[in-house]
Design a protein that fits this description.
Length: 262
């Protein structure tokens, strides 16, 4: 796991966007795993800007989103389908047929989840997976105690996640769906490269446990310690409870020339 600490969320998003852009330019038919929520919005804005002003071409890219609420139609403004169209897909040239988002209205949820896993396999696996982290250490919607070998499946949200996500539902917790479809931790860990973003002091404890704590199902993101190419981009506030910040800065500043493209 490589830990990259920046002065603020804008700097972290810029570095992460450069990494994603390089992946797409190097492999135009890259398979990207995408996340939702407030954390990756600036990264998406930067990729949109690169597409419009620098010719970053997404025409061969295929995407798989991490998760979706069960019971929300794609047209619902709180669905992740709507979020992705509004914040990314409607502004770049990814063909609609190359976009994959879990279907929260599927009649057969287990069957859909198996099909989603198969689609990822047929695409050759995910080349680069973008992640955020919940304040309780979840990734995707893999809540604490999730199996570290789990695959795409239905999950019931914890009260903590419902409370955290109520801000997207005008603060009304009763409107937050209790069930979701999410890629499993095993699915996420199969990605060739993982890029995780975390910003703000409210994420500091989860970040600390993810990076410096034991690998445990109570902190699902801690599984990333076992990934061969996981890159964690955090701002100073999110690094507030880390013990080894000096070492992480030292390592990043002294990377060999051939590693300095991040």
């Amino acid at each position: 796991m490589e830990v990259i600490i920046t002065k603020d969320s804008s700097s972290a998003s810029a570095k992460a966007a450069d990494l994603v852009a390089k992946a797409v330019r190097t492999k135009p038919d890259s398979v990207l795993g995408l996340a939702t929520g407030g954390t990756p919005v600036e990264l998406y804005k930067r990729l949109i800007n690169m597409h419009k002003n620098e010719g970053l071409d997404f025409s061969k890219v295929r995407t798989f989103n991490l998760d979706e609420y069960i019971g929300l139609k794609p047209t619902d403004k709180q669905s992740y389908n709507f979020f992705m169209r509004e914040n990314f897909f409607d502004h770049v040239n990814i063909p609609r047929e190359n976009i994959n988002i879990p279907d929260g209205m599927a009649a057969d949820i287990p069957g859909f989840c198996s099909e989603y896993e198969e689609k990822i396999r047929r695409a050759g696996g995910i080349d680069l997976q973008i992640l955020g982290i919940g304040s309780d250490g979840h990734i995707g919607f893999n809540e604490p105690t999730s199996s570290l070998a789990s695959r795409t499946r239905i999950k019931t949200l914890t009260q903590k996640t419902v409370d955290d996500n109520a801000r997207f539902f005008n603060g009304d917790k009763s409107l937050v769906p209790l069930h979701v479809i999410t890629m499993g931790i095993g699915t996420i860990m199969d990605a060739k490269t993982i890029v995780l973003l975390a910003f703000g002091a409210n994420k500091a404890e989860a970040v600390s446990k993810m990076i410096e704590g034991p690998v445990a199902s109570m902190v699902p993101a801690s599984a990333l310690q076992l990934h061969p190419r996981a890159k964690v981009f955090i701002d100073r506030a999110a690094s507030g409870k880390l013990v080894n910040t000096g070492y992480y800065d030292w390592v990043f500043e002294r990377k060999p020339e051939w590693q300095k493209d991040i």
